[in-house]
């Protein structure tokens, strides 16, 4: 496998794979959109492959993928029909229990089996505690690849039983190359805005283009820099995100706001820095909670605008 920008992670994985004793638990850590899921699947295929045993090109019986399930029965049906559907906010204990039942049996093709959890950040607490038991006493030939966008959200006991494989943010030119290949419809201005907002994540840059976040980016920059004393810009922002925006668009907007504030932190004068840091911290909190909390989308959008405005420089009142 070849993963541009993640050569060090690949080297570390291959060194471990060629060693005498492969560690049973790995955390693939890095911001969302860096290609960790693709790396995990390719790494799992390398791990389960054995000489003389043909490997299926599609779904592999010895690679178990746990991820967020469709939210409802209707979403299950939409998935089966190839239509857009909503996901559950978390990975539940029933999924972990089902996986553990499979670990009682022998692998199908060879002597190894891999469990990928994507993302492990979304494990409910009971599910995380149940997973910990498997990490503490892994069945022979069982290996775990936990994809994590925010490793700090994982239980410390899970982190302590896994080896960390880090995926750094990519340089702008590599993100641009991904956009040119996978989003050729994006013009130069859109690509530049996507690259700035993505902060090294090709996946985030592609989401930026797919979600048409260009207008939001400009509005967020204006609010963060000039404020919004009359609430006009915040109203425009809410309208641009959409009164009935789906969860994916709201989450993408949160990530965009975080990127805008991160850019402001790098560019703003020191006197303005504390308020930007405070706003960035609150956006981080919302971004970590929003995937699993039952927030009202409209209120969350207004909160994004309010936090951006709080980072702006104070404006002197006009006196006539």
Question: What does this molecule look like?
Answer:
The chain is α/β, with parallel strands linked by helices and 320 residues long. The protein folds into two domains: 7-166, Rossmann fold, CATH 3.40.50; 211-310. 52% of the residues lie in helices and 8% in strands. It has helices at 7-17, 36-48, 73-80, 93-103, 125-136, 156-160, 172-182, 188-198, 202-210, 214-226, 232-241, 247-267, 273-289, 297-310; strands at 25-29, 63-67, 113-118, 142-148, 163-166. It has a five-stranded parallel beta sheet with strand order 2-3-4-1-5, sandwiched between helices. Helix 5 links the parallel strand 3 and strand 4. Helix 8 (188-198) crosses helix 9, helix 10 packs antiparallel against helix 11 (232-241) and helix 10 (214-226) packs across helix 14 (297-310). The model is unreliable at 316-320 (pLDDT under 50). One of its GO terms (biological process) is DNA-templated DNA replication. One of its GO terms (cellular component) is DNA polymerase III complex. Pfam families: DNA_pol3_delta2.
């Amino acid at each position: 496998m070849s993963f541009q920008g993640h050569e060090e992670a690949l080297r570390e994985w291959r060194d471990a794979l060629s060693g005498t004793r492969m560690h049973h638990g790995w955390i693939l850590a890095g911001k969302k959109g860096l290609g960790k899921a693709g790396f995990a699947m390719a790494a799992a295929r390398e791990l389960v492959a054995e000489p003389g045993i043909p490997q299926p090109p599609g779904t592999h019986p010895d690679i178990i993928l746990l991820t967020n399930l469709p939210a409802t029965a209707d979403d299950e049906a939409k998935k089966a029909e190839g239509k857009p559907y909503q996901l559950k906010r978390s990975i539940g204990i029933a999924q972990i229990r089902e996986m553990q039942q499979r670990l009682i049996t022998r692998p199908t093709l060879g002597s190894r089996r891999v469990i990928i959890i994507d993302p492990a950040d979304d494990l409910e607490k009971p599910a995380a505690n149940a997973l910990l038991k498997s990490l503490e006493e892994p069945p022979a030939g069982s290996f775990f690849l936990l994809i994590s966008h925010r490793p700090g959200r994982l239980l410390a006991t899970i982190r302590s039983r896994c080896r960390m494989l880090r995926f750094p943010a990519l340089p702008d030119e590599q993100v641009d190359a991904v956009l040119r290949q996978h989003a050729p419809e994006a013009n130069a201005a859109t690509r530049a805005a996507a690259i700035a907002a993505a902060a090294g994540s090709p996946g985030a840059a592609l989401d930026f283009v797919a979600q048409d976040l260009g207008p939001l980016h400009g509005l967020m920059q204006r609010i963060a820099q000039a404020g919004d004393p009359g609430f006009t810009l915040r109203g425009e922002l809410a309208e641009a995100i959409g009164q009935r925006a789906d969860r994916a668009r709201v989450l993408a907007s949160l990530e965009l706001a975080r990127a805008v504030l991160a850019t402001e932190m790098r560019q703003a004068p020191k006197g303005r820095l504390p308020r930007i840091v405070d706003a960035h911290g609150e956006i981080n909190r919302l971004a970590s909670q929003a995937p699993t909390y039952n927030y009202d989308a409209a209120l969350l959008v207004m909160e994004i605008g309010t936090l951006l405005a709080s980072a702006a420089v104070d404006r002197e009142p006009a006196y006539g």
